[in-house]
Amino acid sequence: MTTLIYAEWYKLLRGKVLAIILACVTAQTVIQVLGQYTTTGEPPFPGQFGVLVAANGSFLLQVWLSAFVGYFVASEFQNGTMRNIVALGKNRTQVYLSKLFSACVAIAAIYGMITIVATAGFSAVFGFGDMAFKEFISFFTWHFFMQILYHLTYAAIITMFAFVSRSLGMTIILGFGYMLVMLFFPGFLSRVGLEDMDEYLPGYYISGFGQLSGDPTFVTKGIIVTAAYFVITCIIGCIIFNKSDIK
């Protein structure tokens, strides 16, 4: 397992996929900052709240993650790399977990890049804000790591899509489709009188964390829901991969 993790880490650092994704994320965030700056009537967004930007638009983060997992994981089924790994006798569960590790690193890197660029960009155009440095460090650290934790759900789900579809294109399509469903599903639940059910969706805690982070019950429920989705999708993905015939 350690060898597989090291190999994934090496590919992350030496490969171009994550670097390209991060460059695209940087450009997207810069455009978002400039758009906020040039839109009249919009209230200023101080740089101290830059850590919340990715959470407020996490559907775009899912798109970038889908692209990463498609190129970094699913494409290995199409170019024969996965077949060679399995032929070497590597434990399939460990192989799956090593790929999931890469997706988790990617989600942290993408979220980190958005946060850094948003914090710097909004500070440049709107000012940093009146939060004291010590208070900011506490605010930033808490929100940054908790949001990465909550976003790990997406890493697990899209990794499962990659192993189910074994296709770069289908992984991106499934990831995008999941994003659209989760974007509109809470509204559907509200219309049919089941608005309380959205508490069982990971996105509920991601989008509401900035406003409700002081509520211990909200935080705890978010961790439980995230862990449940993460473990369940991981188990499903491992079962499918272990039972599949790799050609």
From TrEMBL:
Q: Please verify whether the record's keywords include Hydrolase.
A: no
What are the TM regions of this chain, as residue ranges? 17-37, 49-74, 100-128, 140-164, 171-189, 222-241
Signal peptide per UniProt: none
Q: Which Pfam families match?
A: ABC2_membrane_4
Alphabetical keyword list? Membrane, Transmembrane, Transmembrane helix
Protein name (record): ABC-2 type transport system permease protein
